[in-house]
Amino acid sequence: MKIDNKPWFWIPLLNFASGLPYAVIISVSVIMYKNLGITNEDIGVYTSLLYLPWVIKPLWSPFIELHGTKRKWFLSMQLLISIAFLLVGLTIPANGFFMMTLAIFWVAAFASASNDIASDGFYLLVLPENQQSFFLGIRSTFYRLSLLAGNGLIVLFAGYLEHKYGDNTKAWSYTMIAVGLLMTFITVYNFIFTPKNEINAVANIKEEHQNQNFATVFISFFKKKQIGLILAFILVFRLGESQLLKMLSPFLLDGKELGGMGLDTESVGIIYGTFGVGALTLGGILGGIAISKQGLTKWMLPMFLTMHLPIIGFILLAFFHPTSIYYIYAVVILEQFGYGFGFTAFMMYLIHVAEGESKTAHYALATGFMAMGMMLPGMLSGYIQKYLGYDNFFIWVLIATIPGLILSRFLTFPKDFGKKSEEV
């Protein structure tokens, strides 16, 4: 039976609906809480805990695959995310808003992680195999555009409202309500345009077989060669980055008397949401090209160094506090390009870890450990920054990248892994 399928109509916004909630929950929330008077220590702890649903999502992915259709799941989850963001906006003016909004973000995070599981499965079931590789690039592009919308346009909008009303509470309340309405529109769009039949008998049989043996699949992951080293590497590789990401926005927003750069919300939105995402995207594209031409072995160390060395730029900003904003632009562009370029190697290695039977489940487990490596150090980042000050904090962040670099030199994988085959 032929599936009524027009991928250009549904793939872009389906993947936009995966990236936007993640950006708002993990990144935009940091800026929001900072501007609403929450301390760096609390921001580090509580917003890092929001990673948890992505850490443990492999544990409930079989339930999503066994009950109901993927389409019903992602539409339900997107609607729940929309309601959650509206509630965050309505709750911000209330007393005790911090814990109430965190609880709502927590629900939205679980819904977002579930939406990711269902959307990925839907893509594999509905799209013919001969189109999947082509539209993989489209998925990635619109996911990155959703990050641009979250870290850029939404933060810019909030900054504009802060200046208009002179009231951060009102500005962020209206901003989150607007995000909720945007997610509602996306949900309705996906309801109208996503295919309504998930007919792929072979895939369904395979998935059912995998789900029935999930315990075996789970255990087989921990029987992989070098699994102890692999897990140690995955957990510590982002030790520095996890702390950097939580404290960068506070550093840019804090005044000079606190050791920060004293920028306003709009400036942060422009820097990270436009130039930053552009550099990140370019780095990711070039990283993929480099690995496809010469393989992961040749590029792993150079890419990791490219990812970590730009932290030196933030050390210099923290020590010298240049008055020109162009220095900040330069550092952020270098850091985001290096992150996009270097992170490609890390994700390619995770693909290698997942090779073999049960590839999807093992990749989900690997990315779950990756999220754990972001969550735990991020929780301590605010306390470390408070104790060290921004200047010494960034030195510590650079030092924290060293264990991952050392462990990477002991990993084994095929020499030409990731290299594009020359065969026609």
Automatic annotation (TrEMBL):
<dbReference type="InterPro" id="IPR020846">
    <property type="entry name" value="MFS_dom"/>
</dbReference>
<dbReference type="InterPro" id="IPR036259">
    <property type="entry name" value="MFS_trans_sf"/>
</dbReference>
<protein>
    <submittedName>
        <fullName>MFS transporter</fullName>
    </submittedName>
</protein>
<dbReference type="InterPro" id="IPR011701">
    <property type="entry name" value="MFS"/>
</dbReference>
<keyword id="KW-0813">Transport</keyword>
<feature type="domain" description="Major facilitator superfamily (MFS) profile">
    <location>
        <begin position="7"/>
        <end position="416"/>
    </location>
</feature>
<feature type="transmembrane region" description="Helical">
    <location>
        <begin position="299"/>
        <end position="320"/>
    </location>
</feature>
<dbReference type="InterPro" id="IPR004752">
    <property type="entry name" value="AmpG_permease/AT-1"/>
</dbReference>
<keyword id="KW-0472">Membrane</keyword>
<keyword id="KW-0812">Transmembrane</keyword>
<dbReference type="GO" id="GO:0016020">
    <property type="term" value="C:membrane"/>
</dbReference>
<dbReference type="GO" id="GO:0022857">
    <property type="term" value="F:transmembrane transporter activity"/>
</dbReference>
<feature type="transmembrane region" description="Helical">
    <location>
        <begin position="72"/>
        <end position="90"/>
    </location>
</feature>
<feature type="transmembrane region" description="Helical">
    <location>
        <begin position="43"/>
        <end position="60"/>
    </location>
</feature>
<feature type="transmembrane region" description="Helical">
    <location>
        <begin position="363"/>
        <end position="381"/>
    </location>
</feature>
<feature type="transmembrane region" description="Helical">
    <location>
        <begin position="269"/>
        <end position="292"/>
    </location>
</feature>
<feature type="transmembrane region" description="Helical">
    <location>
        <begin position="142"/>
        <end position="160"/>
    </location>
</feature>
<feature type="transmembrane region" description="Helical">
    <location>
        <begin position="326"/>
        <end position="351"/>
    </location>
</feature>
<feature type="transmembrane region" description="Helical">
    <location>
        <begin position="7"/>
        <end position="31"/>
    </location>
</feature>
<feature type="transmembrane region" description="Helical">
    <location>
        <begin position="393"/>
        <end position="411"/>
    </location>
</feature>
<dbReference type="Pfam" id="PF07690">
    <property type="entry name" value="MFS_1"/>
</dbReference>
<keyword id="KW-1133">Transmembrane helix</keyword>
<feature type="transmembrane region" description="Helical">
    <location>
        <begin position="172"/>
        <end position="192"/>
    </location>
</feature>
